[in-house]
Amino acid sequence: MLNADALKQLSKLKTDIRSNKDFVDGRVRGSNGKFGFVTLDDGREAFLPPAEMERVFPGDRVRASVTEDDKGRLSAELDQLLESEFKFLVGTYVQRGQGHFIQPSHNNLDRWIFLPPRARGKARPGEYIACVVSRHPFKDGKAQARVESVIGRPETAGIEHALVVAQHRLPEKFSDAALKQVGEIQGKLDALLAERKDLSQLGFVTIDAETTRDMDDAIAVSARDGGGWTLHIAVADPSSLIESGSPLDREAFARAHSQYLPGETLPMLPADLCENTFSLLAGQLRPVLLLQIEVNEDGSLGESSFDFAAIRAQHKLSYDRVSRFIGGDQEAVPEEARAGLRGLALLSEARSVFRASHSLVMEDRPDYEIHLDEQRKIARIERQERNVAQRMVEEAMLAGNIAVGTKLAEVQQGCFSVHLGFREERMGEVKSLLRELLPQYAEQDLHQLPNYLALVKQLEASDAAEMRNLLAVLKRMLRPGQLDNQPGVHLGLGLAAYATVTSPIRKYNDLHNHRVLRAAAEGAAAKTLTDEEIDTLQENLVRGRQANRALEQWLYCQFLQDKVGREFAGVITLVNGAGLGVRLDENGVDGFVRLNGNKKKQPEFDGKHLILTHRGQEYQLDQPVKVKIASVDVDRRRIALNLVSEDSAAAQAAGEEPLAETGKAQ
Questions:
Q1: What is the DSSP-derived secondary structure letter of residue 48?
Q2: Which of 184, 262, 332, 627 could form a Cys-Cys staple with 325, CB 3.0–4.6 A?
Q3: Measuring CA to CA, which residue among 633, 402, 597, 582 is closest to residue 498?
C-alpha cells in the first residue's frame, strides 16, 4: 500500500503531466470505420483512435490533449466531454447470443449500442426501431439506448419512408390543439371573405402540375396603355386566420416548409387547409394577398402595390396545357384564358431578357419525376425538361418576390433570402485562380453585387474552355443561400434584395412575410423573427432537404441493383483525388468513379483547378462522360461507376483491377 508521501508524489506527477499537455476543444467527426477525428476550434484536425472513438458520438464537443508525430500528424486523447446533442437514433434491432443491440442507421457511427432488458419494450430482433440514448459512453465506452418506438420490418411496404422520416425527426402528425384550430378557421372564413373586395374580374388562373392540390398562387396579366403590362399575382392568405404564436403557427414553424418526399407529402399546414380552405381552387372564393406590379416593355419593373382582397380563380391549368397553347394549340386552354396567357408569355420573355442583362439567370436543368410501385419503391424515373409554361410562372413569381423584397428592405423587416457569395475561408483560393485568367477581379471586393455580377457575366459569355472550367470551380466555393431577418444581397440571382412571399401555405418564411406586409399596410409593428428563430427555421429547412436526399439515395440504390453493367451518359459533378462524381443524364442519379484503386497508377489531381488526369485523359467539372454501373451497395447507399472508354477497356483487357468497387455516391 502506498503511504501518504507516495500518494502525494503520484498526484503531483499526474498534475505535472497534465499541465504539459496541449488541451484543445473541438467537435467529434465520425468515419466509416471504427476511428474518428476531432475538428479542433483552431481549424486543425486530430485523429481519434478506435478506443477513444468508442467513448463519444459524432457531433460531441470534447476537450482533448493533442500530440503531433514527426510527420506533423495530430492525434487526440479525450479528456472531457463538454456537450453531447446525440440523444436520438434509429436503426436495426440486432440480437447476438444473449446480447441485444441497435445497429444505427447513422452516417459515421459504425458500432452497435446495447439495449438493456427493460429498455427493449415490445420491439423484436430484425425490426427497425427508434431509440433514445440512455447512457453516454464517455466514461467507459459502453453506451446504452432505450427503445422509443417500433418503425417496422424491412419487408413492410414504404419502410424506407418511415425510417427516414423517423431518423430525421420530421413531424408527421398535428397536435390536437392545431386540429381544433383548423375547425375554428373554417368557421371564420365566410366572415373574412365578406370583408374583402372581390377582384375576380381580373381573370385569374392557376398554373401548376396536373396533380397539384395545394395551389397558393394565381396569375392575371393586363396590357397597359402605352405599352407594357400589369402583372397581378393573387397569393393564398393563411396569415389572416392563423395568428402568430397559435398552435398552427408553432406547428408550421417546426416544419418550416411542406416536405415533398418521393410518393408523399408532409404538409406544413394540415391537408384540409392546404388543399381546400386556402387553396385557390377554380370557382371558389378565397382570401388573398394581391400583388400588382408594373412591367415595362423592356422587362424592367415599375411601380408595385399590394392589398388584401378576395378572388375566384377561373380555371386550373396545367403546365402541359399552357405549353401546348403557347406552342399553337388554341384548344388546349379555355377561350377566356387565352388573352391573359399571351400577355404572360410576352411579359415573361421580356423579363427573361432583362434579367439576363441586368442580373443572373439560373441555368435550366431537367427535373426527374419518381414513380413508385405498390411497395413504394421506384418503378421508373422520368426525365422532364422545363417547358415554356414553367418559365412563364417562374418569371411571374420572381417579379413578385423581387417587388416584395424591395418593399421589405425599405421597412427593414421581414424574412429575407440572401446569398452572400464566396465562402470567406475560400477567398484566398478564389483570388489565386482569378490572378491567372482575370487578374483585374482578383483585388476587387467580390461580395459587392456590381463586382460579382461583372465577373460571372464575363465568365458566362466566354466560350474558352479554361474560362468555363473557372466558372465551374468558382461555383463550388459559394456559400449556400440562407434566411436572414436583415435585408442583404442575393448574389445567386444578382439582386440587391429578395424575399419570397408566393408560397405561404408551403413555406413558413413566406407566411411570416405576409404578416409583415399586413402590419406595414396597417401602420403597425410586425413581430420580428429573432436570430435564434431564423437559425431554427434554417435548421428545419436543412433537415427536410437532408431527409429527402437520404430517402432518394436509398430508393435509387434499390432501383439500380438490377442495372449493374448497364451504360449511361452522364456529367461530372465532383472531382477529387480519389475520382469523379457523375450524375446520370437519364435518371439524375449520382454515383462515383474511383480512379485511385491501382496503387501503381495513381491519378494526378490538380486541387486548385479541380482537374484529374488519369491515363493521359483530363477530367473536369461539367464534362460529359460515359459510365457503366459497376456495383450497388444498398446498405451503405453507394453507387459505384466505371468509366467507359477505350483506355479503360484496354486496361481491363491487360488484367488491371477494376477501379470502382468502393465508389461512394455523393
A1: E
A2: 332
A3: 402
Is the distance from CB of 551 to CB of 164 less than 8 angstroms?
A: yes
Which of 505, 498, 506, 471 lies closest to 482 in space, CA to CA? 498
Block residue for cell numbers 404572360: 344
The tens digit of pLDDT for each residue in 120-147 reads: 999 999 999 999 999 999 999 999 999 9
- Give the torsion through C-alpha atoms of 443, 445, 451, 456, to 10 deg: 80
For residue 459, the 8-state DSSP code is H
- DSSP state letter for 621: T
276 three-state secondary structure? helix
CB distance 470 to 455 below 8 Å: no
Q: How do residues 404-445 score in pLDDT, each as one tens digit? A: 999 999 999 999 999 999 999 999 999 999 999 999 999 999
Q: What is the pTM of this model?
A: 0.89
Look-up: residue for cell 455580377? 453
Output the CA torsion sign for 341, 346, 348, 349: positive
Q: How many CA atoms lie less than 13 Å away from 264 in the CB half-sphere?
A: 16
Checking 558-562 for CB contacts under 8 A at 24+ apart, the result is 558/160, 558/377, 558/378, 558/634, 559/377, 559/378, 559/381, 559/587, 559/589, 560/589, 560/629, 560/632, 560/639, 561/632, 561/634
Return the SS3 of 135. Answer: strand
Beta-carbon neighbour count of residue 202 at 10 Å? 19
Q: Which of 107, 114, 111, 143 is nearest to 29 (CA)?
A: 107
Domains defined for the chain, CATH in brackets: 22-83 (2.40.50.140), 88-154 (2.40.50.640), 176-395 (no CATH), 421-478 (no CATH), 564-653 (2.40.50.140)
Q: Which residue has the cell 408569355?
A: 345
If we measure between CA atoms, which residue out of 287, 292, 289 comes closest to residue 305? 292
DSSP letter assigned to residue 525: P
Q: How many CA atoms lie within 13 A of 397 on its CB side?
A: 19
**Contact of 310 with 288, CB cutoff 8 Å:** yes
How big is the CA angle at 307 (ends 301 and 309), to the nearest 5 degrees?
130
Q: 3-class DSSP state for residue 483? A: strand
High-pLDDT (> 90) share of the chain, %: 85
Q: Are 84 and 124 in contact (CB under 8 A)?
A: no
Is residue 66 within 8 Å of 40, Cβ to Cβ?
Answer: yes
Query: What's the distance, Cα to Cα, between the start and end of the chain in Å?
Result: 59
Task: Fill in the amino acid letter for 191.
Answer: A
On whether the CB atoms of residues 232 and 220 are closer than 8 A, the answer is yes
